[in-house]
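Box 3.1 A note on notation
Throughout this textbook, protein chains are presented in two layers. The first layer is the amino acid sequence; the second is a token string describing backbone geometry. Keep the layers aligned when reading.
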Amino acid sequence: MTKAHALRSLLNLGSLNYQELLEITGWSDKDLRSVMNSARVNGFIQQQRHKWHLTAKGKARVTTDMKKTIQAIGYVLKEQGQEKSDSLICAMGTNPMPSGY
């Protein structure tokens, strides 16, 4: 996972200020500033009231990243001759999750 992907995934959980991001990630100040600047310039994150959050473009990118990851897991399972679990099939959007989950 790249730092850019990690930052988007983290902010997908909720808005955080710079100090919180620094503490949670454990990255150096220089690394965090670099990743955040790139994400900001590309329109994935923005700051409001001293908190950083994902933009609509950032949320769409997280969704795309998750779909690619789930598809890759499904491909690996298929190559290994394993069946996809109900949870994976549901996450891929090909089958609704049965009630009771």
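The chain has five helices and two strands. Strands lie at 45-48, 51-54.
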